[in-house]
């Protein structure tokens, strides 16, 4: 498991492309038949991914956690962005079709991820945060995730936001998670941008067409930097950073947060004219 410590706003402002990418971009997250984990010290979230093949992939117990099992003191949100699959948790099978979300609470011991058809494998994005209370293991489909249309084709940001784990959806200790799908012709997410110093955020970009990229904007509002993001890559967003992207084509992304506040709408808006 890769460990990433925090970076101060001042340190980040002095970084070039390589350092920005090494600290904030997760490039090789989705590998066939194995789990990849990145432990971030921003609110101690762990970002993970796996593409199960013929045999299921079992949730492991990275030694860095010094735990009896992965979810002993944690909860996890799982969203499939590939072919049909399933998540098995302590004897219960949860269907996990494309864009379904499965939440597993603290204390869940035996977990595995499977693809229905290895030639069209499931692609599981995983986000885990520390938990101090157990909430029920739950599956939500995209349709259950209170879709909200936002943005406008005139500003190239028409999109639908699906909220799965939040104060009015699946209950959790601190995890908040969902996904956003850009309409064809729209390329901007989260503009006007915002920060929320009460919680970090991670973005996982998917359905970026072959050969295209997303320019992901980060940094303090008056000190922005960017990362060039390819399909199936993730970005760690510090609590003090904006997190917004513009694609060279339309795309989708999973957002996930943890920290002090559990309310999706808790954002400190940044006027576009205030960005530098
Ligand atoms: O704090 C919330 C997050 O940044 C995202 O939910 C924003 C987003 O999905 C969008 O505007 O498209
Ligand atoms: Zn945000």
From TrEMBL:
Cofactor (UniProt): Zn(2+)
Annotated cofactor note: Binds 1 zinc ion per subunit.
Gene Ontology MF annotations: 4-deoxy-L-threo-5-hexosulose-uronate ketol-isomerase activity; zinc ion binding
A single GO BP: D-glucuronate catabolic process
Enzyme type, top EC level: isomerase
Entry-linked InterPro entries: KduI, KduI/IolB_isomerase, KduI_N, RmlC-like_jellyroll, RmlC_Cupin_sf
Binding-site list for Zn(2+): 194, 196, 201, 243
EC number: 5.3.1.17
Role description: Catalyzes the isomerization of 5-dehydro-4-deoxy-D-glucuronate to 3-deoxy-D-glycero-2,5-hexodiulosonate.
Protein name per its UniProtKB record: 4-deoxy-L-threo-5-hexosulose-uronate ketol-isomerase
Organism of provenance: Dinghuibacter silviterrae
Organism taxonomic ancestry: Bacteria, Pseudomonadati, Bacteroidota, Chitinophagia, Chitinophagales
């Amino acid at each position: 498991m890769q460990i990433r410590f925090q970076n101060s706003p001042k340190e980040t402002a002095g970084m070039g492309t390589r350092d920005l990418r090494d600290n904030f971009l997760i490039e090789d997250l989705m590998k066939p038949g194995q789990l990849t984990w990145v432990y971030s010290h921003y609110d101690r979230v762990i970002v993970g991914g796996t593409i199960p093949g013929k045999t299921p992939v079992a949730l492991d117990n990275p030694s860095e956690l010094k735990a009896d099992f992965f979810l002993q003191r944690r909860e996890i949100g799982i969203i499939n962005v590939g072919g049909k699959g399933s998540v098995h948790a302590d004897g219960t099978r949860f269907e996990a079709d494309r864009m379904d979300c499965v939440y597993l609470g603290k204390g869940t011991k035996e977990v595995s991820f499977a693809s229905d058809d290895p030639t069209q494998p499931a692609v599981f994005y995983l986000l885990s945060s520390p938990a101090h209370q157990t909430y029920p293991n739950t599956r939500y489909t995209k349709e259950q995730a209170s879709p909200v249309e936002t943005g406008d084709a005139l500003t190239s940001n028409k999109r639908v936001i699906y909220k799965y784990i939040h104060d009015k959806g699946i209950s959790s200790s601190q995890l908040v998670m969902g996904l956003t799908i850009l309409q064809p012709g729209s390329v901007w997410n989260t503009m006007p941008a915002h920060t929320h110093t009460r919680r970090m955020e991670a973005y996982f970009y998917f359905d970026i067409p072959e050969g295209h990229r997303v320019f992901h904007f980060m940094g303090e509002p008056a000190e922005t930097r960017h990362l060039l993001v390819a399909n199936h890559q993730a970005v760690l967003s510090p609590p003090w950073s904006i997190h917004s992207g513009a694609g060279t084509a339309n795309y989708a992304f999973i957002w996930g947060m943890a920290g002090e506040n559990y309310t999706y709408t808790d954002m400190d808006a940044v006027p576009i004219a205030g960005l530098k």
